[in-house]
Write a structure and sequence with these properties.
With about 425 residues, the chain is α+β, with helices and mostly antiparallel strands. About 45% of the residues lie in helices and about 15% in strands. The chain starts with a helix and ends with a helix. Belongs to the bacterial solute-binding protein 1 family.
Length: about 425
């Protein structure tokens, strides 16, 4: 027994020495600079662009060294925070987790840093700024922004005798019917994918997921219900079996085999980065871009749209929050932001960056940026149960499409599940 005890103590001592050595290596070294760990979710070519910026920062000063790691598993970030060993800085691909993680105490509010440095939050576009705030506190900074518009194949529309893109959702349904091709029960071409993202499309009907004033789930209201009914009508034109067969033959999205590029879809509701993909993989593709169609019965919804933002945050328990803030604030300055956004084919989140000449060579940049600046942009609600909410919306939409529940039953199911969670959070 004693020999086992001694062996166990020896192992613990060795582990302690390893851990201490690891901590020492993470906090110093590199010519005396404080080392901060930065986990970012960008990968591939996008990660290479982030590496360039990290090197630029490291070379620009002699106090902080950023050690970057491309790490796409967001849940691993939460595990590290709960385990007391988080990175000093991390990114999320969107704002969906901000309120939830803030409520759980996993994210450090940035307001003290912002106030101390007189960091200019007013330069951020209002929708982007709101996306990273929860209960009047700022929990992250938005480095890039995405929005979605209607891409359309000009040649296919011309063949179908259609003069320009649809302006209303009512016209969209008509276009979908004229542009879709079905032979022997198999879909050869879809006008547009028939089960679009409901919390993006709902803006066309003036819908919302959450009524902030009433603190109520709003999916039973006409705006969201109309969205789900639109998706259901377009789905029922073909049926689940035919759509599933079509989906199984999808070409790789970021390649020349993208189903929109190859004519399997006549229209695609997609983000600004798709124009960069077209330039890269299908340079001769004849396409156009138009705003999200709006509800003809609600003309005030014209030029409504959806955005999300790529976010950067300091985890709770970070070893070097001051140094992390120094890098974070530098990375989101206009000069660095425009380099990163342009390299990704994304949109900047600062007003001062909108007209920067670096975007002159970014395909369709002006089209998307003008849409954001001049339109009525919405994002997902900043509520601490958003992840459960969105997952339930997707689950129920699939059930509605496949006739497992009716639209009314499905929407009621969403409210019955999410409202009690919201009530508990709001107590």
């Amino acid at each position: 027994m004693r020999s086992r005890f001694i062996a166990g103590v020896s192992i613990l001592l060795i582990l302690s020495m390893v851990i201490m050595a690891g901590c020492s290596n993470s906090s110093a070294g590199n010519d005396g600079k404080v080392t901060i760990d930065f986990w970012y979710t960008w990968g591939g070519d996008e990660a290479e662009e982030m590496k360039k910026l990290i090197k630029e920062y490291n070379d620009s000063q002699d106090e902080v060294f950023v050690k970057g790691l491309s790490q796409g598993d967001v849940q691993k970030q939460m595990t590290s925070i709960v385990g007391g060993n988080p990175p000093d800085l991390a990114s999320h691909p969107d704002e969906n987790k901000i309120a939830t993680w803030a409520e759980r105490g996993a994210i450090t509010p940035l307001d003290e840093f912002i106030e101390k440095d007189k960091y200019d939050m007013e330069d951020f576009l209002p929708a982007a700024r709101a996306a990273v705030q929860y209960e009047e506190k700022t929990y992250a900074l938005p480095i890039v922004m995405n929005t979605w518009m209607l891409y359309y194949n000009k040649d296919l529309l011309e063949e179908a005798g259609l003069d320009g893109p649809p302006e209303t959702v009512q016209e969209l349904e008509e276009y979908n019917e004229k542009l879709s091709v079905v032979k022997d029960g198999r879909i050869e071409r879809l006008g547009i994918w028939p089960a679009g993202n409901p919390y993006m499309w709902m803006n066309a009907f003036g819908g919302q997921l959450w009524d902030a004033e009433k603190k109520e789930v709003a999916v039973l209201e006409p705006g969201f219900k109309n969205t789900m009914e639109l998706n259901k009508r377009m789905w029922d034109m073909f049926g689940s079996d035919a759509i599933d067969r079509m989906a199984s033959a999808e070409g790789q999205y970021d390649s020349a085999q993208n189903s929109f590029f190859t004519g399997k879809y006549a229209m695609s509701f997609d983000g600004e980065w798709l124009a960069t993909f077209i330039k890269r993989y299908a340079p001769n593709f004849n396409y156009g871009i138009a705003p999200m169609p709006y509800d003809a019965n609600n003309p005030e919804t014209k030029n409504s749209g959806f955005i999300n933002v790529g976010t950067l945050y300091i985890p709770k328990g970070a070893s070097h929050p001051e140094e992390a803030w120094d890098f974070l604030s530098w990375l989101t300055e206009k000069e660095q932001m425009v380099k990163f956004a342009a390299s990704l084919g994304n949109l900047p989140t600062r007003t001062s960056a909108v007209d920067d000449p670096i975007f002159d060579d970014v395909p369709e940049y002006d089209t998307f940026m003008n849409y954001v600046v001049n339109g009525n942009m919405q994002s997902v609600p900043s509520v601490p149960f958003l992840e459960e909410f969105l997952q339930e919306v997707w689950t129920v939409q699939d059930e509605i499409m496949r006739d497992k529940v009716s639209v009314d039953e499905g929407l009621q199911k969403i409210k019955d599940k999410i409202q009690p969670i919201a009530d508990e959070k709001n107590q």
